């Protein structure tokens, strides 16, 4: 019998969980693990906020300056913490309570987004302020990359890890799509300043979702080392573990050459005569494609992981070429969505491969190394911005994609371990 009375917020999260459980296969669905649904929902909100900040920042800087270099620099600033802070975040994940870390980085966004929104509304915003805010959000992504994913493993265990990581990749891609779409719509509807206030409100929702969650029991590892020694051990692990090294190299290439175009999408939108909402939809195209790729991986239980991981990078890079060269908006949108499918297959397998390559007590640090490898992204964004300043946006994207395919082929030849991982 239908129930039409008042419901608690948790009922809606469980309803979403039931739908995703059906989509991802019931027997090993991560949503059957206690509290995973709430952590997943909070992660979705976090990704919406992060991608919303990325879209609004690049849109605003493009509007204020019109410089591809300064627009790409915004992306560089956002992802720079990954380059230097990833392994430190891994040590924090292994030593501190992961749930507390995730809650803290979510709550920190609220006052900062509010201040930025009020400054934009008062017409007192300056470019350096946007850069500072994006850097702090980037620090939050370091903690999310290391602590949240390790927390997910604590919640679901080994048997449901594949499905959980596919669902995590889905939350990232869905958050990317919704963050860009909401950002583009909000700019049209209420303006940039109020859009930042929307992000502050969403962050509160994400924090509230985590309130019922309790930290799962973790295997206690006797530690006689210092955090500095943990840091050195994490870096040394990358040299000793050939499978991990192979994965990290592929991650560097994907982030330097494949994902570096996101900040420059508003400039590509200018080439296509797109307004704010259509630019937001174009930015959401990657997330829509990634969501599709993640669901395909979860639903079809694709194997082997290593080949899916590498193949996703290749497919994503190849489809960037038509995205950059076509002259009509619908074709550009279709190309970026299809490229995103490859990125989704890459993202759905990445964390699982990393965590299977190391022992349990090193997983936080391994994820920290992965986030450092993702730290190649700001460098790739900066390089793409410099190239675009010289030869134009479309030519720069094509140049980056072709160079990435060459680099990937060379690394695959030198380090084939990830290709052969089952």
Overall description:
- With 422 residues, this protein is mainly α.
- It contains 16 helices and no strands.
- The termini are far apart.
- The N terminus is likely disordered.
Task: Specify the number of helices.
Answer: 16
The whole-number mean of residue pLDDT values reads 81
Number of domains: 1
- The tally of beta strands, per DSSP, is 0
Listing every helix as H and every strand as E from the N terminus to the C terminus, the arrangement reads HHHHHHHHHHHHHHHH
In the predicted model, the low-confidence regions spanning at least 5 consecutive residues are: 1-13
How many strands, what sense, and barrel or not for the largest sheet?
Answer: none
Question: What is the beta-strand fraction?
Answer: under 5%
**CATH 4th-level superfamily:** MFS general substrate transporter like domains
Structural class: mainly alpha
What is the level-2 CATH architecture name? Up-down Bundle
Topology:
Elements: H1 9-24, H2 36-65, H3 68-95, H4 98-121, H5 127-156, H6 161-189, H7 192-209, H8 227-240, H9 242-258, H10 265-271, H11 276-300, H12 305-325, H13 329-356, H14 363-374, H15 376-391, H16 393-414
Keywords:
single chain, 422 residues, mainly alpha, Growth Hormone, Chain: A, 16 helices, 80% helix, disordered N terminus
């Amino acid at each position: 019998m239908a129930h039409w009375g008042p419901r608690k917020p948790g009922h809606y999260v469980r309803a979403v969980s039931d739908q995703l459980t059906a989509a991802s296969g019931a027997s090993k669905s991560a949503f059957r693990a206690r509290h995973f649904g709430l952590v997943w929902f909070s992660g979705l909100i976090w990704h919406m906020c992060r991608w919303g900040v990325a879209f609004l920042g690049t849109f605003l800087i493009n509007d204020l300056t019109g410089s591809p270099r300064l627009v790409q620099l915004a992306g560089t600033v956002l992802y720079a913490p990954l380059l230097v802070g990833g392994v430190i975040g891994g040590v924090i994940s292994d030593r501190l309570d992961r749930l507390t870390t995730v809650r803290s980085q979510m709550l920190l966004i609220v006052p900062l987004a509010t201040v930025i929104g009020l400054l934009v509304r008062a017409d007192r915003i300056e470019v350096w302020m946007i850069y500072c805010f994006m850097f702090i959000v980037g620090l939050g992504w370091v903690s999310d990359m290391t602590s949240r994913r390790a927390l997910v493993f604590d919640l679901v265990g080994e048997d449901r890890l594949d499905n959980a990581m596919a669902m995590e990749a889905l939350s990232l891609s869905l958050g990317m799509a919704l963050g860009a779409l909401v950002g583009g719509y909000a700019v049209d509807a209420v303006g940039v300043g109020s859009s930042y206030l929307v992000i502050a409100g969403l962050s509160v929702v994400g924090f509230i979702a985590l309130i019922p969650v309790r930290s799962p029991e973790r295997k206690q590892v006797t530690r006689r080392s210092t955090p500095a020694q943990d840091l050195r051990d994490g870096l040394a692990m990358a040299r000793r573990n050939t499978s991990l090294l192979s994965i990290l190299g592929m991650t560097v290439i994907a982030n330097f050459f494949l994902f570096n175009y996101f900040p420059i999408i508003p400039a590509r939108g200018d080439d296509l005569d797109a307004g704010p909402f259509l630019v937001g939809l174009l930015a959401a195209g990657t997330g829509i494609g990634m969501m599709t790729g993640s669901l395909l991986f979860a639903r079809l239980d694709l194997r082997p992981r290593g080949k899916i991981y590498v193949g996703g990078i290749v497919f994503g890079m190849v489809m960037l070429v038509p995205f950059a060269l076509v002259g009509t908006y619908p074709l550009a949108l279709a190309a970026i969505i299809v490229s995103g499918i490859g990125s989704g297959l890459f993202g759905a397998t990445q964390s699982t491969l990393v965590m299977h390559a190391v022992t349990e007590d090193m997983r936080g640090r391994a994820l920290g190394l992965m986030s450092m490898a993702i730290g190649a992204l700001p460098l790739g964004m900066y390089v793409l911005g410099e190239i675009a300043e010289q030869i134009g946006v479309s030519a720069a994207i094509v140049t980056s994609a072709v160079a990435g395919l060459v680099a990937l082929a060379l690394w695959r030849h030198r380090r084939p371990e990830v290709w052969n991982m089952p």
